[in-house]
Amino acid sequence: MVEALVNESDVDFESALRVAIAEANVPTLQVLYVQLTGDERYLAPPFLPTRCKGIDENDSGGLAPELQDEIRTAAFDAIVAWRAGRPVAIPQPSADQLVRMMSISVGESIPSDYGPFMAAKMDSYSGYETNPVTHPVPEGFSVVIIGAGMAGICAAVRLKEAGVPFVIVEKGEDVGGVWRQNKYPGCGVDTPSHLYSYSFAQGDWKHYFGKKPEIENYFRSVADSFGIYEHIRFRSHVSATRYDESAQRWCTDLEFADGSTDRLESNVVISAVGAFGTPKWPAIDGFNTFQGQVLHTAQWDESVDLTGKRVAVIGNGASAMQLVPAIVDDVSSLTIFQRSKQWAAPFPKFKKAIPDPVRFMFSEVPLYEWWYRLRLSWLFDSKVYESLKVDPEWHDPDRSLNAINDGHRRFFTRYIEKELGDRQDLAPKVIPDFPPYGKRMLLDNQWFRTLTRPNVELVDSPIGSVDENGIRLRNGDHHDFDIIIVASGFDVARFLAPVNVYGREGVSIRDAWNDDDPQAYLGTVTPQFPNFFMLYGPNTALGHGGSFIFVVECQVNYILSVLEKMFESGTTEVECREDVCTRYNELMVDMHSRMIWTHPGMSTYYRNSRGRVVANSPWRTTDYWKLTQEADLSDYHTKSEIPASVG
């Protein structure tokens, strides 16, 4: 009877697999086949995939249908054999193998030094990664994590795995961070769902690019499945966290809605408040005089009905690009006030659901998902890096940086012109003069097509003020509205703005950083603040695309490495040395001077009020990964005992 059930199960699996294989990504199947069998016949002519165009995944590999069918059939047989018990031929591909296989899969040469980086990613996906904390945790040692968003959950999972006691304090009523807070229509991620996932938590994604509810549910499910909820104190506002030098402990003060307070003491504080928590309002007078409703995308009121209303949207960045197409059918009229132009890339899988057979493939054949994620990490991240470097000999530096970047300009320009259709009069208003990727590169949620709608107007004249009836431009023109929506983003340059942090001798983080001029070593630690770590710190954002979750995992790995070395050596306090931090940030300035984000042709939230790039990382992800692999306590001032007067 059991044998009959097993056989029936195998038949069901094979039937489902056959359907899934027919919809799977062919280049991913090719490398999967090699790993399962050791046979490289499908990595040679005539089976070589064409080069991926832009961020398209090249599902067919650009191959003739009969060649695709042969690959699919071979992959089906290999997966069935693996499920029946045949060992994987290459359990852990070497760095050289990964570079060679991936280069063929994406149709272009991948630098050899990406090999160890990709091997580490494969190890983390497949569970080969080891726990970096091996020494006993000192008795009474504890960590406070501020924030239960993406970064806080990541830190919590890894600390729990390492056996380090911790508590998370979260101001909201649930996990999710910005994905819990942001509720505006169209809110979603512009990173593929399978990249916007932890290496240790796959996620059963329903869409190639998840929207807010799906992303929020992912973080809830991770927190639940890893037992993190029991470590979280919700509705806990951190009024301040202060370092007590005499006790070598952080004192974190909490406030609650009923007026009560509490204090937590810990050896270490990890800030996971992120950079997208404090809304930024434009410097425009008169919002308080408007008789209609004023909304900020970061503080959305879901009770507001836009139906039939005359609506203004101030801003045309990432939030606006998601919001506008989502509300255009509801409003009577929509007027967009644009301060600067934006580049946006084609979005082939916009709003596309992942077919159930492909979800089956991800779930039942983990190796397929690992290879799929590895390909995405190149296409959406590492691939574009070289185009962001300044060629000092380039003939037209105002419009592009180098030959590759100029190719991007031509490609994106053709795309925008095509999307505008017969409204080419809009082209001068929307095609940027600055090089592609100079500002945050956006994905086109049908933004350009929406601009051509009869009830939509794009205004590129500066706003003078807001009055009781609407918006007055500096040229004197006036527009009447029922609702004004501000989509001006967040106060990114003022890192750690949501928390009052006081370090050695009571110095505040705002004073230490001259308010908006943050400097940190590896974007994670800063002088005068012992045993204090930050996730998503200065110069860690990926301006060239990719998954920020991976960067946070690198930071968490680094923090665990610091803790391991502290436990091993009996160190009780670590404080980043001033000279180490200074040299690192001088390097940041030097590297950025040769990259796109210092280009004078545009303004961007990547830079602070002094013009220094404080948000983006100039590193390739493989470089940052190497830098955060292992901590070196010689980068720190250390102490190995608590003062006797405290004991």
In words, what does this structure look like?
With 647 residues, this protein is an alpha/beta fold. It is built from 18 helices and 21 strands. It has helices spanning 2-23, 26-37, 65-83, 95-106, 115-126, 150-162, 178-181, 212-225, 318-327, 356-364, 366-379, 403-420, 427-430, 447-451, 509-512, 548-569, 578-592, 621-627, and strands at residues 143-146, 166-169, 232-233, 237-244, 249-255, 261-266, 268-271, 293-296, 310-314, 333-337, 344-345, 442-443, 456-459, 463-466, 470-473, 478-480, 483-486, 501-502, 532-534, 573-576, 636-639. It has a five-stranded parallel β-sheet, with helices on one face. A five-stranded parallel β-sheet has the order 8-17-9-10-13, with no helix packed on it. Helix 6 (150-162) packs parallel to helix 16 (548-569). The longest helix has 22 residues, at 2-23. The N and C termini lie far apart (68 Å). Residues 1-6 have low confidence and may be disordered.
